């Protein structure tokens, strides 16, 4: 406990140094989606390797190989950085994951300041691309190591890093490396902690123990051999767009209810125990409405909103490939159109079963249309949902750390989106995975003026360090 | 009759000269939609002015003004060329219309030969951009004048030309000029003839006496203030795409039946007299199927196909603006989407009434959705249908000319698309308008390898000339 306090004091006193480190990291525009910035992504990897080595970590890299960039060019993928701080067999080993690439950012997009120059505004917000997603958290772990080293404090656990440079672009090659290293580099890992998401709101820390999955579908309707003119052919042939709209309109109701039979049968019922967990969560309907920008919410109470975001499935129509999409008027009859939609999945929905249900339903509905066009429905991609337990010792340790640093019990949250690496670590390592966010819900991770509040950075560094202390004390084999 | 035969013989004997004139015209890439080719459009106008003047025509031009090219640049519009051959008050005055601009064409699009070099293949097809649409027909009229001049034959009518250079790009400025000149340059016009469409098939000439109109609609659904992530928001807000697909699926059935109440009440019934006119028309179901490339036809008999193309309304869904349209997967919830659809209209549908019916129906259906999104439905553009009569003396004269040149009675056809200038001339001049095509239905006017069969060009020149002789003999005031 004394060492925890010492650590926290050090962080409080040296926050300018840590902000300076973040400033140097933000200055490297490691935009993974832009081939022109690919050298910067590599440079950012080097920056982290140097920082880690300077703190005595042993560092290795793994090469994810080459990227086929939209069939236009071949790019080297930035390395997965593996680093180890400590290898005491008497200690637990905690694996932390983060990413060192960032979303694109241009001043012209509407940034108030240069996105790659970290500035602090009068509300003590550190503004810059990657400040919150995910350079702040990644440096958070490094700052923890530095603080211990400078204080001459022993690290409470062995710490392993897994840092990738392609998260914002699909984490190409990462899964294979994790699976490959599961019984090698990651062999002694006892638990995993990922800091790459956000508080639910702006005031209260949270631990995140669940994510929805996503199954993405392509519904193709093929009619004439080529696009036709609606004047000449309208009324004489089966138009693929008519069939597509008929089918896609039968997938989901305006109130969000999914119309594919059998989907809800697979959804785990809400227990009274689960219901109770929503009561204390800091979330209002107004939080949703301000995020959305108006009052187009379906549900009128905050708990329903959270449940429909976290633990009920949803179906969204995304668009149509092959149809007219520009402004203006065009009288084309598209020859082939591909409708895109996805289903957010929750326990206990199984991706394979979902695809079966969707394919059967859409095929049945298509047959009812009596169209001479042809229809193909396919799942283009599925990622399973993920659910851990806030009662797991890894979470209990994190909750204690939150109480120590913030003097409040964390909200126990789930998220509506997916973070595929979470499930990948859990499946490959068979260890508990904890999502422990540093930033706030309004950080604007993928938007203009991305920020990390100074207090979130400083308290976040404390949180990550204290978590390592707390997790060293729990029995991780006692899986509740 | 002797002079007609003399004229036809001359055309037969001088066909190489006429093809050479077409070759020189095709060599000018007068693509009106491409700013880089705008000078070529002007050059093509000059070419026609020179040819007309050389034949003794008096030529004037009208300037349609400037074009705002997608808000990016301002382009000069090519002139409307007005020319007069003869001003004998004892003769009728016939106005002919054509356009000297062409569709874009690139060798890379799949042309077998350079699109701007006219070549004749082994099936005696003259291949080149604009050969059929509409340089062949425009030169057809000029060739008629030349033949008479060379033969020392008097022209049977006074001939006026109205030639524009923007037809393939919306005829910007033309309507105002026609209206303005109605009681000036066009004051003495007795009838109008337009040669800018095609035979129904490939074997039999036709006269075209009807066109469908088109009313184009934009259906906008607006939800959240910005695009959202379906993981975070799916299931909690009213998604504009869901509402849009619900509404657009209620517009038309897969078998082409329009679901907007009241539309069919306005459609003029098929009389037995009209029904009879379809019997002799050279058109098979296989003609539709080969145009479409497969058997996705709704109707199983040729007459139903023609009626649904020509004289029944149709509704086509064209696309969605604001949604995801690229290949691949994207989990966006679009904030605002605009569905595009159009209705092909026929007698006695009135555009204003159609818009009223559509707006009422879509609004009613949207209200049933109980969505908190907002919806706006608007007619972005409407052009009325057009219907003349094959019994009008102008058509009787043309039918006689077809019999003289082709030894067959022409098919009496309508078309499913619209040619707005037709209605514009009829409304402005209050004179009969005849559509007298030169090319075949398979000329590929807007496709690669556009062609005009040598025989269509040569017989077409004869047809235009003989028509002028025939129309000089009928009583155009006797409007059947
Ligand atoms: Zn991230
Ligand atoms: Zn991110
Ligand atoms: Zn044309
Ligand atoms: Zn055209």
From TrEMBL, chains A, B:
Which keywords annotate this record? Hydrolase, Manganese, Metal-binding, Metalloprotease, Protease
State the organism named in the record: Hesseltinella vesiculosa
Can you provide one Gene Ontology molecular function annotated for this UniProt record?
Answer: metal ion binding
- Residues annotated as domain Peptidase M20 dimerisation: 209-366
Q: Where is this site: Important for catalytic activity?
A: 229
Q: Which cofactor does it need?
A: Mn(2+)
Question: For this chain's UniProt record, which GO biological process terms are given?
Answer: glutathione catabolic process; proteolysis
Which family, according to UniProt?
Answer: Belongs to the peptidase M20A family.
Which residues participate in Mn(2+) 1 binding? 133, 168, 446
- By its UniProt entry, which InterPro entries does this protein fall under? ArgE/DapE_CS, CNDP/DUG1, Cyt/Met_Dipeptidase, Peptidase_M20, Peptidase_M20_dimer
Cofactor, free-text remark: Binds 2 manganese ions per subunit.
Active-site residues, as the UniProt record annotates them: 101, 167
Q: For binding substrate, which residues are annotated in this chain's numbering?
A: 196, 229, 331, 344, 418, 446
According to the UniProt record, one GO cellular component term is: cytoplasm
List the protein's name.
CNDP dipeptidase
* Binding sites annotated in the UniProt record for Mn(2+) 2: 99, 133, 196
- Family annotation (Gene3D superfamilies): 3.30.70.360, Zn peptidases
């Amino acid at each position: 406990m004394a060492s925890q306090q010492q650590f926290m004091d050090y962080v409080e006193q040296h926050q300018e140094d840590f902000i300076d480190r973040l400033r140097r990291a933000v200055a490297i525009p490691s935009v993974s989606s832009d081939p022109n910035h690919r050298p910067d992504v590599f440079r950012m990897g080097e920056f982290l390797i140097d920082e880690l080595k300077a703190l005595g970590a042993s560092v290795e890299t793994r090469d994810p190989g080459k990227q086929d960039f939209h069939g236009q060019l071949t790019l080297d993928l930035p390395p997965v950085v593996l680093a180890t701080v400590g290898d005491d067999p008497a200690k637990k080993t905690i694996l932390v994951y983060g990413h060192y690439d960032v979303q694109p950012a241009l001043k012209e997009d509407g940034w108030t300041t240069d996105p790659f120059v970290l500035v602090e505004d009068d509300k003590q917000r550190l503004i810059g691309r990657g400040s919150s997603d995910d350079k702040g958290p990644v440096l958070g772990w490094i700052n923890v190591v530095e603080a211990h080293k400078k204080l001459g404090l022993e690290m409470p656990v062995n710490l392993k890093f897994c840092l990738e440079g392609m998260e914002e672009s699909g984490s190409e090659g990462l899964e294979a490396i994790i699976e490959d290293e599961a019984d090698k580099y990651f062999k002694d890992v006892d638990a995993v902690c990922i800091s790459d998401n956000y508080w639910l709101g702006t005031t209260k820390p949270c631990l995140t123990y669940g994510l929805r999955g996503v199954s993405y579908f392509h519904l193709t309707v093929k009619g004439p051999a080529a696009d036709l003119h609606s004047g000449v052919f309208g009324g004489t042939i089966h138009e693929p767009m008519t069939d597509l709209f008929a089918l896609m309109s039968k997938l989901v109701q305006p109130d969000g209810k999914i119309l594919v039979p059998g989907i809800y049968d697979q959804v785990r019922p809400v227990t009274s125990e689960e219901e109770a967990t929503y009561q204390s969560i800091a979330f209002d309907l107004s939080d949703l409405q301000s995020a959305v920008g108006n009052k187009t919410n379906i549900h009128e109470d905050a708990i329903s909103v959270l449940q429909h975001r976290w633990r009920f499935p949803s179906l969204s129509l995304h668009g149509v490939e092959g149809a007219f999409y520009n402004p203006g008027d065009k009288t084309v009859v598209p020859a082939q159109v591909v409708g895109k939609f996805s289903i957010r999945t929750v326990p206990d929905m199984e991706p394979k079963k979902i695809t079966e249900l969707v394919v059967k339903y859409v095929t049945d509905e298509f047959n009812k249309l009596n169209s001479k066009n042809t229809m193909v429905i396919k799942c283009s991609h599925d990622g399973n949902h993920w659910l851990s337990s806030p009662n797991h010792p890894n979470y209990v340790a994190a909750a204690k750390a939150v109480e120590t640093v913030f003097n409040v019990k964390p909200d126990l949250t789930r998220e509506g989106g997916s973070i595929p690496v979470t499930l990948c670590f859990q499946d490959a390592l068979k260890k508990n995975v904890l999502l422990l966010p540093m930033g706030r819900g309004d950080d604007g991770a993928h938007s203009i003026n991305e920020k990390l509040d100074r207090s979130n950075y400083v308290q976040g560094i404390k949180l990550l360090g204290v978590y390592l202390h707390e997790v060293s004390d729990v029995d991780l084999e006692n899986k509740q």
